[in-house]
Task: inverse folding
């Protein structure tokens, strides 16, 4: 056994490079295996004369430790590459496309309607979904015994109180909140979710969405209301669209009307969507009742205004001919995917 043997192994070790775990294992066997170079030196050590044993012994042990450390270090640095290579995964391959999803049809319609009224100069206002009786009914001129307040129709959060909390049954409550805090002239649309105690079916749901509109200024007339609705209907359903107004009743408007648009499927000839009438009902509207203006501190001698309200699911149904309201709430991907190609709004 010679000192040079130890030095040679140390210098070979210094230059050792491995790219894979397999090469690291080969290096380990070469130095430390049964027939390895370091193992051979230990065999030769038995023959070393007694007086040299001490010196060689220490050097040999240091050598073995150095080799072991080096092998360990190599194993740690090449390990990742090797496992990836062995797994057959190609990290340079493009990833799987997981799809971005799409807007919900109710969101698409809401945005379209808001954009149309924004063009006409309307702002957007919002209000709470948990409301009090005053903002949903009282300030809107509902008499105390009006059936809408009935528990069969309204979800109450608290009962017994003179002004109980409830889930708003329409977005007209946001009219009231807007009038309370905004100076006239007022021009707003108020989109939001509403709740009614209805049995769920293809034509009714206990949760749905509305957009309320309110315009108050000096000298606002029914002709302004009619023109605003006509312009909206033509933007929404096409430039050929006609409207008709039928007299109706709401506690918060006087006079009140319901508005139909000409059926954009049969163009007035009559089809199964418009049930042969050539007309489709889209909203309720009217001139804001002076009592409603006064309740929110607006001088009804000086100012007048109109209001309207429409259901978003209904408009979406007409637009896309969805025949069952429940589809809007079930989040069935097969239904939602139908709207992927809808315009980004
Ligand atoms: N709030 C009514 C409803 O939920 C809709 C409505 C009708 C709103 C007439 C109005 C209006 O602002 O003037 O059925």
Result:
């Amino acid at each position: 056994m010679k000192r040079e043997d130890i030095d040679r192994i140390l210098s070979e070790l210094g230059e050792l490079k491995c790219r894979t775990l397999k090469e690291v294992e080969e290096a380990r066997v070469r130095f430390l295996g049964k027939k390895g170079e370091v193992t051979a030196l230990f065999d030769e050590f038995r023959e070393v004369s007694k007086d040299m044993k001490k010196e060689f012994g220490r050097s040999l042990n240091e050598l073995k430790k150095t080799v072991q450390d080096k092998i360990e270090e190599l194993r740690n640095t090449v390990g990742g590459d090797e496992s990836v290579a062995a797994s057959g995964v190609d990290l340079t391959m493009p990833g799987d496309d997981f799809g971005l999803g799409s807007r919900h049809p109710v969101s698409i319609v809401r945005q379209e309607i808001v954009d149309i009224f924004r063009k006409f100069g309307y702002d957007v206002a919002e209000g709470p979904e948990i409301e009090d009786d005053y903002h949903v009914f009282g300030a809107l001129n509902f008499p105390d015994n009006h059936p809408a307040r009935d528990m069969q129709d309204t979800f109450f959060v608290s009962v017994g109180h003179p002004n109980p909390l409830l889930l708003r049954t329409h977005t007209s409550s946001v009219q009231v909140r807007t009038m309370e805090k905004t100076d006239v002239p007022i021009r707003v649309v108020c989109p939001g979710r509403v709740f009614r105690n209805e049995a769920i079916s293809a034509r009714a749901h206990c949760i749905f969405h509305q957009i309320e509109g309110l315009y108050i200024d000096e000298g606002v007339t029914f002709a302004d209301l009619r023109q605003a609705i006509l312009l909206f209907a033509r933007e929404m359903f096409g430039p050929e669209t006609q409207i008709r107004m039928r007299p109706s009743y709401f506690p918060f408007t006087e006079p009140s009307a319901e508005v139909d648009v000409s059926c954009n499927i049969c163009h007035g000839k009559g089809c199964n969507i418009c049930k042969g009438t050539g007309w489709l009902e889209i909203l309720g509207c009217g001139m804001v009742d002076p009592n409603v203006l006064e309740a929110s501190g607006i001088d009804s001698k000086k100012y007048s205004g109109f209001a309207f309200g429409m259901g978003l699911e209904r408009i979406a149904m007409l637009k896309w001919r969805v025949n069952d309201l429940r589809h809007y709430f079930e989040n069935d991907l097969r239904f939602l995917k139908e709207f992927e190609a809808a315009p980004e709004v």
User: Anything to note?
Assistant: The chain has two domains: 3-87, 105-339. Residues 105-339 form a domain with the BirA Bifunctional Protein; domain 2 fold (CATH 3.30.930.10). The radius of gyration is 40 Å. The beta strands are 123-124, 130-132, 165-167, 186-195, 207-217, 243-250, 253-262, 279-288, 304-311.
